[in-house]
Write a structure and sequence with these properties.
Elements lengths: L6 H12 L4 E5 L5 H7 L1 E6 L4 H11 L4 E4 L6 H6 L1 H22 L4 E7 L22 H20 L3 E6 L1 E3 L6 H11 L4 E4 L6 E2 L1 E3 H11 L8 E6 L5 E2 H12 L4 E4 L10 E2 L4 H5 L8 H16 L1
Parallel strand pairs: 1-2, 3-4, 4-5, 5-10, 6-9, 7-12, 8-13
Antiparallel strand pairs: 8-11
Helix pairs in contact: 1-8, 5-6, 7-9, 7-11, 9-11
C-alpha cells in the first residue's frame, strides 16, 4: 500500500490486516517497527514511491498480488499554493509505480484512490462516473492525470486498474478540514463560528471506516475490464451548514454558526455521487452520518484530553 501512513491508509491497513491479508507499506512518515505492527503493517518503508523502494519490498516479501495506491496530494489549498509539489506527489508517483508494475509485476492489480474533485463545478444533483471531468483546482487536475495514466497503462500494457473517486471522507484521526476546524474552535470555547462559503454547499459525506471497507471490497476481481472507475460516494448529500449544526449538537453547547459568503478557490457548490455502480455491486454504507459525527466528536475529545 502506498500512502499507508495517511488518514485513509491507516484505516485501510486495519481493514485488510483484520481480514487476514499481509500488508506492506511505502510512503512518507517515520514509523518504528512497533508502530508499524500496531497499525497492522508487516513492514514499512519511509520514502518515495519509486523503483528502489518497490524492489526492496518485493525482494523481502515477494511480488504483490494487489497494490492499493493511496499516495498523493491531499489538499486543494496546498495544491494551489504549491502546484508542482502536488503534481509530484500525485502524478509523478503514479507514473513511477505504473512503470515499475509494467516491468516487474504486470499481473498485479491496482486500486487507486482518486477524488470527486475531478468533476469540478456546475454539477447539479448526483454525478455519474460518465460525467465530463472539468477539475477546477490543481488538486483535481492532478487526480485526473493520475487516472489517465492508469487508463493508459491498462490499455497499452494490460495493467488492471480500479479507480475509486472518493467524495468527502471524514472520521477518527482526520486532523484537518471542516470537522477538525469546527471541533478545534469548539474546544477553544468559541461561541460564534464564522465559516467560509454560504453553508449551502452540498457534499457526499462518507465515514472513513466505510471507505476502507469499500476499497477492500472492490479489490476482489469481479470485473473483466482492465480499467474501471467507481464513485466512492453514498448518493446522499448534506450541506455544510447541516454538518456544522450536527457537530455542535454532538459536542454540546450553544455555539452559533455564521457564514462569510466567500467561497475558497477551487471549491464547487455541489459534489454528490451517483451511486448506481455501488448499488450494482451491493456495497452497503453502514455508518449513518449522526453516528459518524458522534464518533468523530468522541475521538476528538479523547485525543485532546
Amino acid at each position: 500500500m502506498t500512502g499507508a501512513n495517511g488518514f485513509i491508509g491507516r484505516h485501510l491497513v486495519h481493514e485488510l490486516a483484520g481480514a487476514g491479508h499481509a500488508v506492506y507499506g511505502v510512503g512518507h512518515g517515520a514509523l518504528d517497527a512497533a508502530e508499524s505492527r500496531r497499525l497492522g503493517l508487516q513492514s514499512w518503508i519511509n520514502g518515495e514511491i519509486d523503483a528502489a523502494n518497490l524492489n526492496a519490498l518485493a525482494a523481502a516479501h515477494g511480488l504483490p498480488a494487489q497494490i492499493f495506491h493511496l499516495a498523493g496530494g491531499s489538499s486543494v489549498g496546498i495544491s494551489i499554493e504549491r502546484p508542482f509539489e502536488d503534481f509530484s506527489r500525485t502524478v509523478a508517483s503514479t507514473a513511477r509505480l505504473l512503470e515499475w508494475l509494467r516491468g516487474s509485476a504486470p499481473n498485479c492489480a491496482v486500486i487507486a484512490a482518486s477524488s470527486a474533485a475531478v468533476y469540478g463545478a456546475d454539477h447539479v444533483g448526483p454525478i455519474a462516473e460518465s460525467a465530463i471531468a472539468t477539475p477546477m483546482s490543481p488538486y483535481g487536475q492532478h487526480k485526473l492525470m493520475m487516472e489517465q495514466l492508469c487508463g493508459s497503462y491498462a490499455q497499452s500494457f494490460g495493467i488492471r486498474c480500479t479507480i475509486v473517486r472518493l467524495f468527502s471522507v471524514y472520521g477518527p484521526n482526520l486532523r484537518k478540514q471542516l470537522l477538525w476546524d469546527i471541533c478545534s474552535r469548539l474546544a477553544a470555547k468559541e461561541q460564534v463560528l464564522t465559516l467560509g462559503g454560504t453553508g449551502n454547499e452540498i457534499r457526499d459525506w462518507t465515514d472513513v471506516r466505510d471507505v476502507a471497507r469499500l476499497l477492500a471490497s472492490v479489490a476482489a476481481p469481479s470485473s473483466p475490464a482492465a480499467f474501471r472507475v467507481i464513485n466512492g460516494g453514498s448518493g446522499r448529500g448534506t450541506s455544510v451548514a447541516d454538518i456544522a449544526a450536527g457537530l455542535i449538537r454532538q459536542w454540546g453547547g450553544n455555539a452559533v454558526v455564521r457564514h462569510s459568503g466567500v467561497s475558497r478557490p477551487g471549491d464547487p457548490l455541489s459534489l454528490l455521487a451517483d451511486d448506481a455502480v455501488l448499488r450494482q455491486i451491493e456495497f452497503d454504507w453502514r455508518i449513518p452520518l449522526d453516528q459518524g459525527l458522534a464518533d468523530y466528536v468522541a475521538w476528538y475529545k479523547g485525543q485532546a484530553s
